[in-house]
From TrEMBL:
This is Vacuolar protein sorting-associated protein 41. It comes from Puccinia coronata f. sp. avenae. Keywords: Protein transport, Transport, Vacuole. It comes from the Eukaryota. Residues 1-86, 366-407, 683-707 are annotated as: Disordered. Required for vacuolar assembly and vacuolar traffic. One of its GO terms (cellular component) is fungal-type vacuole membrane. Its main location: other. Residues 50-64, 373-390 have a biased composition (Polar residues). One of its GO terms (biological process) is macroautophagy.
Length: 1056
């Protein structure tokens, strides 16, 4: 812890406040002659300080004390002669997630915003919390102490500076932007531009540290840019950015710069008698856009930043970060206060109605042997170099004080704070932050809503003004009942904060209690307490302490008003100890919203473990409490022990299957008991409808059915995903009957669920339900065949043995068992058919040669598997077979019937083929619809376009007339059945043959029709040409060139 101490703490070891200030006896501020030379900016002028400064001593404090809470120190001793006055503040040590932080780490930096709290630790961890101390985000951007942390105004980014030399900026909302800059030297301060989130292309922030450079960083899409705004004046200790102005503190003093123009605005020099800059951290706080509060060591400065007289009349708060210029500003130090402490934090405080100043004061016990010259200072790498002091003791610190100082240097309030381990902490270990809630819905903000946060390495304290409720409470604590009633009357119902005039009646009630009239006081309390919840609760708790709670229980209200849950819990716990039956009545009467069931249950469980006389009532109470608390799973075990039939409906309705994983045996036993009782009741009533009783199966196999076992078994098998099979079987190890019921129902639902227990299932089926054994053997493939056969062999289950032998491949032995032990020829035949083994048929025939009954059975069941001639040949001479003639006649009849069926099938097939051929022929010979755009598949010309005409025949006859056959052939087209189209002359290359056939046909027409043909030569020539084409096509000489060529190519490829 000491090694990771903040820089301020390390620098304060052995240095007293008075020695650090030297011989400061004068109240004058440093003169301008004491300004440190400025080499870099010769044109810059220092700000003139007021002619006089004010020293604030304890004698100027008003007579105020703080005994508000455990946070305020109780070490102050009030003057007995002075009347105690009401404190100004109330303090609350914040808990929640912050306790986990302080348990493993120490806080080193702190900041607040409208909705968030930022906390940095010595381990380099950043915690972002809301004001309810709920963790929003946690990350560790650093490996060493975080010295500074800032949250952007829009609360989208948080920036930190650390001893490890890194600056980190992490996005809190709207994305996951993380930027870490390693500057290789310990960084003490960081500040983001106020509108950092609005400039994604050019985001600016400022950093400073032990390197002494105040650097402006610009982070954009094209890269990062660094500009050193100031250097060579020692380390940078603090930085704040407001609008376009940046203020920082270094070893020589305080400077203000205009970021936009990089022009220095002001320079406030440290006094020569002030402690070294590295000993105590400088604290800035902007009370307004025009006023800056500076707290450094024991000095408070109020700095005004106003517009110059010749500047335009634009308020400074409205000047954006890109428009303000230092030439418009005038900076002055209005006031300087000196205090008798070291300032650990400063901020404006207006909750009192005036512009006051709040500081966190750190004081130490005076020691004579400490010197200001002995100190420690961090080195360049962030470590602490020790310088041997005159005294090796660290001066013990006193409790830090929260002081309110008025604008005229009057100390209004000073409250010591009860900080954990305050003796070990130094001024730089504390942080003070101011939170002013923003105005909502256009309304002006309330000054009473202002609050302060005080952080130490191990504490976070919320400081708020005491409200009217606190004021009334304080008067009641001091027995000023009259004043309290008057305050309630003035405030009215809305402003009374829970108090009422009925509190005056407490005097009467207290009087009755002092007289021992408890019953009378209980009867009189309802009209006095009325609807005052707090009064009711106090009254009930007081009677509880006096052992008279029973007198007030009948009068306790449950509605209007409804008391706190603790009250009803106290009553229930009291009834638990004194009257369990009344407790059960109250549980059923009261709404579960009145009390916390989780607070009553532990007491009830403890009482049940010690009290067996009322165990039934107590278990009922516990079960009903669990159900009311929406924990029905925990109530199941108690309902099962109480044998409540509704437990199964409770499990199903609330999906409590996971909760009853370990209650399987108890459920089955209870369900079995319910079924037996129902069966006995039905038997007593003489009812024959036993299905309604859902009887449990007995050892008789004909009564076993998975759906008849019980509600418990059904529940277990239906929800194996929540109640594993292995978990149930482990509980049923010593209950074979229950194991059989469970596994059999499981197999009925899904045969694959109980595969791990298949061998046990076979054994249980053989014991409890043989009729279902064969079904299981045929359906399941997960059991061991050898074990199953041994079980069946021991019990002489022949059919099962036959099946298992067949599964194992020992078909001859299985067939022998069927023939020898069962004597069922039909079964033997079926077995042989199932195995489909010729050798097995041969064995069956050989076994049957000497058995007439088997031969008759084989003859009656001949088929494709048995050749009847082969069977008849194997019959021995002289063997008498009953009804052999009838069997042979039946074989012949079956053979003739088979032949008849084959012939009929053939006739049907021939008829169908003929019909389909006709359909195909008709469809192929139908006319085809022509398209004028169709082209010849050979010459690629339109079919309507004439091809080259035939010019001559073999006899030298020229066909050049307009009506000649050659000319008509040039326009004739052919479409084959394959739907390929050609010009006639593109298919028939032999024009001579075509013309000769046409002339031959023309001669035939002349002989038949006479000279009338010559009169219509053109028409007859066209007809004859078509007729000639048809003859050639039918003769097979003309065919589709494309299809013929494809067929030839296919034949040639096959031959190759």
């Amino acid at each position: 812890m000491d090694e990771a101490r903040d820089l301020g703490e390390a620098g304060n070891d052995g240095v007293s406040q008075d020695e650090a200030r030297g011989q400061q006896g004068s109240s004058k501020c440093p003169s301008l002659d004491e300004v440190v030379p400025r080499k870099q900016f010769p044109e810059e002028e220092a700000i003139t300080n007021p002619a006089e400064s004010t020293e604030i001593h304890p004698s100027q404090q008003q007579e105020l004390s703080s005994h508000n809470s455990s946070i305020a120190s109780s070490s102050q001793e009030d003057d007995g002669e002075d009347e105690e006055e009401e404190p100004l503040f109330k303090y609350q040590r914040l808990e929640g997630h912050i306790d986990k932080v302080f348990k493993n780490d120490n806080g080193s930096a702190f900041t607040t915003s409208e909705k968030l709290i930022g906390l940095g630790t010595h381990n380099g961890v950043v915690y972002i919390l809301n004001h309810r101390i709920e963790l929003i985000k946690r990350f560790r951007p650093h490996s060493a102490t975080i010295y500074d942390i800032k949250i952007e105004v829009a609360e989208q980014f948080v920036a930190t500076a650390s001893m490890d030399g890194k600056i980190s900026i992490v996005q809190l909302a709207g994305g996951n932007d993380v930027f870490i800059l390693d500057l290789k030297r310990p960084m003490m301060a960081v500040a983001m531009e106020p509108l950092y989130h609005k400039h994604p292309n050019k985001r600016q922030f400022i950093s400073g540290g032990l390197a002494g450079n105040l650097t402006l960083h610009e982070k954009g899409w094209l890269g990062n840019k660094e500009t050193i705004l100031h250097s060579d004046e020692g380390s940078i200790w603090s930085v704040e950015w407001k609008n376009n102005l940046v203020v920082w503190a270094n070893d020589t003093g305080i400077r203000i710069i205009d970021v936009n123009t990089h022009q220095k605005v002001a320079y406030i020099i440290r006094g020569a008698d002030e402690p070294r800059a590295d000993l105590y951290r400088c604290h800035f706080s902007w009370s307004t856009a025009e006023k800056l509060l500076v707290g450094w060591a024991d000095t408070i400065r109020v700095v005004s930043i106003k517009e110059a007289p010749n500047a335009s009349h634009i308020p400074l708060s409205l000047i954006s970060t890109s428009s303000a210029s230092s030439s418009n500003l005038s900076v002055t130090v209005d006031m300087v206060f000196h205090v008798d402490c070291i300032i650990s934090g400063i901020c404006a405080w207006e909750a009192g109605g005036s512009p006051d100043i709040a500081i966190l004061a750190h004081t130490s016990e005076p020691e004579e042997d400490l010197d200001v010259g002995t100190s420690t200072q961090p080195s360049d790498d962030g470590t602490v170099d020790s310088i041997t002091p005159r005294s090796s003791k660290r001066k013990p610190a006193q409790r830090p004080e929260l002081r309110i100082i008025s604008s005229n240097a009057k100390e209004i309030s000073s409250d010591p704070l009860n900080i954990k381990s305050f003796q070990r902490y130094q001024p730089n270990d504390y942080c003070l932050c101011h939170l002013v809630p923003p105005p909502g819905n256009g309304k002006k903000k309330k000054v009473d809503d202002e609050s302060l946060y005080v952080m130490s390495p191990q504490d976070l304290i919320l400081v708020e003004l005491r409200n009217r409720s606190d004021h009334i409470s304080w008067m009641i604590e001091h027995q000023n009942y009259e004043g309290a009633m008057k305050e309630v009357e003035e405030a009215g119902l809305a402003g009374a904060h829970g108090y009422s005039l009925s509190e005056i009646g407490h005097k009467y009630l207290n009087h009755l209690i002092s007289q021992g009239q408890f019953q009378v006081a209980a009867n009189a309390s309802p009209p006095i307490l009325a609807s005052d919840v707090e009064a009711w609760e106090d009254w009930i708790f007081m009677l509880t302490e006096k052992g008279q709670l029973d007198v007030i229980i009948p009068h306790v209200p449950t509605e209007s008003p409804r008391l706190s849950k603790v009250v009803y819990e106290v009553i229930l716990v009291h009834l638990l100890r004194t009257n369990p039956q009344e407790l059960l009545n109250m549980i059923r009467k009261w709404s579960p919203e009145l009390y916390s069931i989780s607070a009553v249950l532990p007491s009830a469980l403890d009482r049940l473990s010690r009290d067996f006389g009322n165990s039934g009532i107590l278990m009922t109470c516990i079960a009903e409490l669990y159900i009311l608390n929406h924990q029905p799973g925990k109530a199941v075990s108690y309902l099962l022990r109480l044998r409540k039939p509704e437990v199964f409906d409770l499990i199903k309705d609330n999906n409590l299957f996971t909760d009853v994983q370990d209650q399987a045996l108890l459920m089955i036993e209870f369900s079995d008991e319910l079924n037996r009782k129902n069966l006995e009741r039905l038997q007593d009533e003489g009812s024959a409808d036993k299905d309604k009783a859902d009887p449990m199966p007995t050892t008789r196999p004909d009564e076993s059915s998975p759906r008849e076992y019980s509600a418990a078994i059904d529940l277990l098998v239906q929800h194996t995903y929540s109640i594993p099979v292995a978990r149930v079987m482990a509980q049923l190890t010593d209950h074979r009957r229950y194991q059989f019921m469970y596994l059999d129902a499981l197999f009925e639902l899904d045969p694959s669920l109980g595969t791990d227990y298949a061998d046990l299932h076979v054994d249980l089926l053989a014991e409890f339900n043989r009729q279902r054994l064969m079904k299981f053997l045929r359906s399941s493939t997960f059991y061991n065949l050898g074990k199953a056969y041994q079980i069946c062999h021991d019990l002489d289950f022949v059919p099962e043995m036959v099946y298992l032998l067949g599964r194992m491949g020992n078909n001859k032995k299985a067939l022998f068992l069927i023939i020898d032990r069962i004597g069922d020829v039909h079964r033997a035949i079926e077995f042989a058919k199932e195995q489909n083994d010729d050798d097995l048929w041969e064995d069956l025939l050989r076994y049957s040669e000497t058995r007439p009954a088997f031969i008759r059975g084989l003859l009656d069941n001949v088929g494709s598997e048995i050749d009847p001639i082969r069977l008849i040949h194997r019959i021995q001479n002289g063997l008498e077979i009953p009804d052999l003639k009838a069997s042979i006649i039946k074989i012949l009849q079956d053979f003739h019937l088979q032949i008849s069926l084959i012939e009929g099938c053939r006739s049907i097939m021939v008829s169908d083929c003929r019909d389909l051929s006709n359909v195909y022929y008709t469809s192929q010979t139908l006319g085809a619809l022509g398209d004028p755009t169709l082209r010849c598949q050979k010459c690629n010309k339109l079919l309507t376009e004439p091809n080259k005409p035939v010019t001559a025949t073999e006899e030298g006859i020229e066909l050049v007339a307009e009506t000649s056959i050659a000319e008509m052939g040039s326009t004739l087209s052919i479409m084959f059945l394959c739907r390929h189209s050609f010009h006639s002359l593109c298919v028939f290359d032999s024009n001579t043959v075509l013309a000769a056939l046409a002339e031959q046909q023309l001669d035939r027409s002349r002989s038949a029709l006479g000279n009338s043909v010559d009169n219509h030569t053109g028409r007859f020539n066209a007809i004859n040409l078509k007729f000639a084409q048809t003859l050639i096509l039918r003769s097979g000489e003309g065919s589709c060139p494309i299809c013929t060529s494809g067929s030839k190519n296919a034949i040639q490829s096959q031959l190759k």
